[in-house]
Amino acid sequence: MQIEMHNIYKAFGQNKVLEGVHFSLEAGEVHALMGENGAGKSTLMNILTGLHKQDQGTIEINGKETTFKDSKEAEEAGMAFIRQELNIWPEMTVLENLFIGREMVNAFGVLKTKQMKARAKEIFKTLNISLPFDKEAGFCSVGEQQMIEIAKALMTDAEVIIMDEPTAALTDREIEKLFEVMKGLTKNGVSLVYISHRMEEIFAICDRITVMRDGKTVGTKRIADTNFDEVVQKMVGRELEDRFPHREANAGNIVLDVKGLTRKGLFEDIHFAVRQGEIVGVAGLMGAGRTEIMRALFGVDQIDSGEITIEGKKVSIRKPTDAVRHGLAFITENRKEEGLILDFSVRENIGLPNLKSFALAES
After folding, report:
1. Where are the domains of the chain?
2. CATH T-level assignment (fold) for domain 254-330
3. Mean pLDDT, to the nearest integer, of 287-303?
C-alpha cells in the first residue's frame, strides 16, 4: 500500500497541532516518524486512520484520494494501529482481547473457540510469546499487554501497521524478536510506520525517516543518508553539543537496605542497597520479578520474609501508606490503571498522597 499525505493541517480550538505536514509511505518499507513530544506524530496517524478529520490537506492511498470516516473503516481497508496507550480490556481474557470485534462464530453465533486458539497460537509462536489464553488481561504486566496488542495487529493481515512506541515496555530479547517479525512483514509487502524516541532502533530497523517539529515536517531522508546528530538537530532545532555529559557520582551513606526479600513463587532472597544521591537500576527479562519486587517494597503486595532498613532503622511496610510515611514514593509501571485516577483533575491527583496534611493546613 502506498500512502501520500499532502499539506495536512489540524487544530483543536485555538491550538494548532499540524501545519502543512507532508508524509509518504511506500509498500514494504519501515518508515520512522520522529519528533519530540507534542510534535504532532500521533495526531497525524490518527488522521490517517480516521480517528480525526484534517482541517485541510489530502490523503492519497494507492493514487486515489481517500478519507476514512472512522478507525473501523481504516481497519477494514488494511490498516492497524498499535497505540502507545494500550487498548486492553482488563476484565477480559487474553483470547477475548485478541479477537475483540473479530470473533470467529458459527452459523448459530457460537464462538469457534478451538479455531480462535489455533490462530492465536500461530501468532504467539511467531512472536515467541507464552501466555495462558484464559488469563485476565488485567493481571498481565504492561510488557505482556504490549505483546498482546502487537499480536492483535498481526492477526488482522493488515497492509499498513502503525507502531507508536511499541518497545517501551519490552526487553531486548522481545525487541529483537519483534524486529525479526517486522522484517518478515516487509518482505511480504506490508508497510510499517515506526514511531519511537529510541534512536538506536530507528537506525537498526527503518528504511526512511521523517522528522516533525512543532506540528511541521522538518524533512524526510533515507536512513543511509543521515546520522544521529542530524536527526537530533532536526528534532530540537539546534545542535546537541554533548550527548553523554560527564557525571561525578558522589554517593553517600546507605539510605535503603533490602535483605532476603522473598515472595514465594515470584522472587526469592533479594538483596540490594541504595546510597544517598545515587541511582540504582533494576534490570531483567519479562517475568524476572522486577515489578513484583518494587510493589512488595512499597507495600502493595505482602512479602513472606526479608528485612527493609531505611536510614539504619528496620521498618515494617505492610501497605503503601507505611511506605509513604517512611519517605518512599512509587511511580508504577502501569500509570493508567495504578498510578492515576483518570476522572480526577491534575491538582487532585497530585494532592492524593498528602490529603491529610492539606486538610490540616486548610483547617
Report:
1. 3-236, 254-330
2. Rossmann fold (3.40.50)
3. 89
Q: What cell numbers appear for 260 in the block? A: 532476603
Using a pLDDT cut of 70, give the percent of the chain over it: 96
Domains 3-236 and 254-330 share a fold: yes
Tens digit of each residue's pLDDT (9 = 90 or more) over 121-168? 998 888 888 889 999 998 888 778 888 888 888 888 789 999 998 887
pLDDT at 171: 77
Mapping DSSP onto H, E and C, the string for the chain reads CCEEEEEEEEEECCEEEEEEEEEEECCCCEEEEECCCCCCHHHHHHHHCCCCCCCEEEEEECCEECCCCCHHHHHHCCEEEECCCCCCCCCCEHHHHHCCCCCCECCCCCECHHHHHHHHHHHHHHHCCCCCCCCEHHHCCHHHHHHHHHHHHHCCCCCEEEEECCCCCCCHHHHHHHHHHHHHHHHCCCEEEEECCCHHHHHHHCCEEEEEECCEEEEEEEHHHCCHHHHHHHHHCCCCCCCCCCCCCCCCCEEEEEEEEEECCCEEEEEEEEECCCCCCCCCCCCCCHHHHHHHHCCCCCCCEEEEEECCEEECCCCHHHHHHCCCCCCCCCHHHHHCCCCCCHHHHHHHHHHHHHHHHHC
CB 104 within 8 A of CB 155: no
Cα radius of gyration (the chain): 24
Residue 14 predicted with pLDDT over 70: yes
The topology (CATH level 3) of 3-236 is Rossmann fold (3.40.50)
pTM of the model: 0.72
CA angle 197, 201, 203 (to 5 degrees): 105
How much of the chain exceeds pLDDT 90, in percent? 53
